[in-house]
Design a protein that fits this description.
The chain is an alpha+beta fold. It is elongated, with a radius of gyration of 20 Å. The protein has 7 helices and 8 strands. The relative contact order is 0.12. This is DNA repair protein RecO.
Length: about 240
C-alpha cells in the first residue's frame, strides 16, 4: 500500500494500547486524517512531541486498511507550548480545533488548513486578544464552509439597507419586515466590529470597545453553533474578551 506526505495540524489525540496514539489531523491536501502513531508515548520516541494538539508538522503516512500509520513527522510550527502556558490562548485554541474537527468530516480545503494554522500562530504569539482571534477564525471558517453571515443586505429577502437585527438561524442581518418577534438588535459599532473580524482588520479589532467585543462574541458563538447543529463544548470554558 502506498505512502504519502502532507502538512498537517494536530487537532486531537487518543491513547491506544500502552504506547500508541490515534492522532486526528487537518491536512493541507488530504482533508481530515486519522492515523496511528506507534510508540509515541514512550520517552524514547523521536517524534512524540511533534504530534501533540496545536502542533503543525510535515508527516509521512502509510495508507492502512482502516487507519493510516504515521511513519515520520517533522515540526513546521511548534505552537503548543506557548498556547498551553496561557489559559485564554489554550481555551481559544481548543475551540478552534474542535470547530475544525466538526466542520471537516468531509473534504477540507487548503484555505481552511491555512486559516487554522494562521490562527494558532497568532495565539501562540499573543498578537491580539485570544477571543478576537477565535471570533475572526469562526467567522472566516464558516464563510469558507459556505455559511458566510450577511452583514449588509437582509439575509432573508435581500433588501438593502442599514439593518439592525441579527438572527443566527436566518443567516445574519435581517430587515424589520423579516425579523421574528424578539430579534436581537445590535449597535452599529458592534456591526462594524463583526465586519472587521471577518476582514481581518486587526487595527480596528484591537481598538474595539469591550462591550462591542462581548456582544460580537455572543453573536458569533450563536451563529457558528447553529450552523454546526451542535454546541462547541470548548466555548463554555472561555473567558470574556479582553
Amino acid at each position: 500500500m502506498p505512502t504519502y506526505r502532507d502538512e498537517a495540524v494536530v487537532l486531537r489525540t487518543h491513547k491506544l494500547g500502552e504506547a500508541d496514539r490515534i492522532v486526528t489531523m487537518l491536512s493541507r491536501r488530504h482533508g481530515k486524517l486519522r492515523a496511528v502513531a506507534k510508540g509515541v508515548r514512550r520517552t524514547s520516541s523521536k517524534f512524540g512531541s511533534r504530534l501533540e494538539p496545536f502542533m503543525v508538522a510535515d508527516v509521512q503516512l502509510y495508507q492502512g486498511r482502516s487507519l493510516d500509520i504515521v511513519q515520520q513527522a517533522e515540526s513546521l510550527g511548534a505552537y503548543g507550548a506557548e498556547i498551553a502556558l496561557h489559559y485564554d490562548r489554550y481555551t481559544a485554541a481548543n475551540a478552534m480545533v474542535e470547530t475544525a474537527d466538526r466542520l471537516n468530516d468531509g473534504e477540507a480545503t487548503p484555505e481552511q488548513y491555512l486559516l487554522l494554522v494562521g490562527g494558532l500562530r497568532a495565539l501562540s504569539r499573543g498578537e491580539h486578544a485570544s477571543r478576537s482571534v477565535l471570533d475572526s477564525y469562526l467567522l472566516r471558517v464558516m464563510a469558507l464552509s459556505g455559511w458566510a453571515p450577511s452583514f449588509g443586505d437582509c439575509a432573508r429577502c435581500g433588501k438593502p439597507g442599514a439593518h439592525a437585527m441579527f438572527v443566527a438561524q436566518l443567516g445574519g442581518l435581517i430587515c424589520e419586515d423579516c425579523a421574528p418577534a424578539g430579534s436581537a438588535r445590535i449597535a452599529s459599532s458592534t456591526l462594524d466590529l463583526l465586519r472587521s473580524l471577518m476582514a481581518g482588520d486587526w487595527t480596528s479589532v484591537d481598538a474595539a470597545r469591550p462591550a462591542d467585543a462581548a456582544a460580537a462574541s455572543g453573536l458569533i458563538a450563536a451563529y457558528a453553533q447553529w450552523h454546526l447543529e451542535r454546541g462547541i463544548r470548548s466555548l463554555a470554558h472561555l473567558e470574556g474578551p479582553r
